[in-house]
Amino acid sequence: MRIVEAKEFSLKREEAEPYEKERETVLDIIQHIRQYGDQALRAFTRRFDGAELIDFRVPEAAFAEAYNQVAPEFVNALRDAIANIRRYHEAQRRQSYLMMDEEGTTLGQLVRPLQRVGVYVPGGTASYPSTVLMNVIPAQVAGVPEIVVATPPDKEGNVNPGVLVALQELGITEVYRVGGAQSIAALAYGTQSIRPVDKIVGPGNIYVALAKQAVFGKVSIESIAGPSDILVVADDTADPEYVAADLLSQAEHGETSQAILVTPSRELAEKTAVALERQLAALPRREITEVSIRNMGAIVVTADLAEAVDVANRVAPEHLELIVGNPDDWIGRIVNAGAIFVGAYSTEPVGDYYCGTNHVLPTEGTARFSSPLNVDDFLKKTSLIRYSKTSLLNHGHKIIALAEAEGLEAHANAVRIRLQKEGK
């Protein structure tokens, strides 16, 4: 991994590709789903997943059978993670409120859950039970009454057992064996067997991302996720073995994932580089991880910790680890980060899987203005106005003045006619 001085460091971001061919494919898929429904869904499932399906919904017996295909230790760990994630998100609950003034006017906000949410869970050869937990639990805490999941099947039409166990533990039974852009289209527009939803959340490949982008407006989405990234701010108290391991934990996600160490310690920088090469050699995903480290990774040496934090804020990382001797002195100065992991034992995978915080985080510098997935993402707010007669008589002329200043005479007249009727 390259070691550079802070003044020489320039952040590498993958140039946004137009994906014109992929976008054209996605739009064609969406149009076919809208026009032909289940017929098109079966054809695309056959074409992309190699599965012949008549009924897309996962049969009830499959959930029970899934427990026979996973280790008891996995189930126990899953249950503990569910409890942690639920407890964390329950603290985010919001309440409706009303406020009344002395003139009898009541203003308020009604906070209500979305009615039907679709969660996309990547599948096929990989297993992502953690995606189930992180997307479903906040929706449940928000009170969403209908949560439906779409996940691609294997060639035999089966869904990964780890995913099914996670869904069963959460009580989610409306699960469809469909993946890719075709599943996003089905969730957004509906088919003969899948009713449309109000919002779609969950990660996926470029076709899923482009499909979510295409249906936005018809339904809501949470974000378009980019490559994962991590930035570690560390001083000479940090263990280079820990730092190297944490950098690799995100680099293994993909060739465009970004792993950066920022430190005022040249010694830590050099020792971390050595440890990283040694640990990299033993990784099963070495080939992918090595491309990420070589092309997108960096070790940045700064003059002091203040400059290191400045670099971190400029990068606005998805995951920021703070492994310094006095972390509490620096937390308040970090203003751009999806999640902050404090101390040597708060390694990033703790947040990915278990502690309770959500691992759906803003990527590619969007932590400057975006937040982790949370309960609010599954709520909608409605303003409530009960304007009293006294208030309208006392303040109506001000409303008329503002409306007339904008040239909207009908707006002004809607108030004026009431004032006139009351002799004002």
From TrEMBL:
Organism: Effusibacillus consociatus
GO molecular function terms attached to this record: histidinol dehydrogenase activity
Name recorded for this polypeptide: Histidinol dehydrogenase
Active-site residues, Swiss-Prot/TrEMBL: 318-319
InterPro entries the record matches: Ald_DH/histidinol_DH, Histidinol_DH_CS, Histidinol_DH_monofunct, Hstdl_DH
Cofactor annotation comment: Binds 1 zinc ion per subunit.
Enzymatic reactions: L-histidinol + 2 NAD(+) + H2O = L-histidine + 2 NADH + 3 H(+)
Residues the entry annotates as binding substrate: 228, 250, 253, 319, 352, 406, 411
Annotated positions binding NAD(+): 120, 182, 205
Cofactor(s) the protein requires to work: Zn(2+)
Enzyme class: oxidoreductase
Origin organism lineage: Bacteria, Bacillati, Bacillota, Bacilli, Bacillales
UniProtKB keywords: Amino-acid biosynthesis, Histidine biosynthesis, Metal-binding, NAD, Oxidoreductase, Zinc
EC annotation from Swiss-Prot or TrEMBL: 1.1.1.23
Pfam families per the UniProt record, alphabetical: Histidinol_dh
Pathway(s) served: Amino-acid biosynthesis; L-histidine biosynthesis; L-histidine from 5-phospho-alpha-D-ribose 1-diphosphate: step 9/9
Domain of life per record: Bacteria
Biological function: Catalyzes the sequential NAD-dependent oxidations of L-histidinol to L-histidinaldehyde and then to L-histidine.
Residues reported to bind Zn(2+): 250, 253, 352, 411
Family affiliation: Belongs to the histidinol dehydrogenase family.
